Please model this.
Amino acid sequence: MRMFRHAVSWGLALALAAMFLHLTLHPWPDPVPGEVKFFDPPGQHTVFATLAEKSGITLFEPAGRFVAGVLELVTAFLILMPFSRRFGAVVAALLFGGGLALHLSPWLGRELTLADGSSDGGAQFLVTVILFALSLLLLVVHPGKSRTSRVLSPAQYWRQA
Model:
């Protein structure tokens, strides 16, 4: 059972880290304009530009975008290291929980208007919900430190307590 939990933990960790890298750096060629946190020109990122416009808080774009990107990269690193995976999963759940709260607020909404004027159909909201669920699942599944199940004599038990 422990090997299965390790395998699932690694699979979830790799999936979450890949999504964090995709959302911040987009290592594949020809990224979609308005979707990459670090390489979009100021005011061009779809989510953060919409937040800055509808809320009136100008710190969302570009400062909030870069802070979110740095937090996502640090979280991806924490998730990839087994000894810090639980903490990384907590940070990931907080980041995606904040994203869900913003999507459910009147500032952002569940459906985003893209640069060409069309709607994304709630795709980013759905991705946020899925990644939030994956980070919570990683938090539960990661086995943590192994505990030995040795049998103690009564004297050893009472000395240990």
Notes: The radius of gyration is 20 Å. The chain has a mean pLDDT of 88.
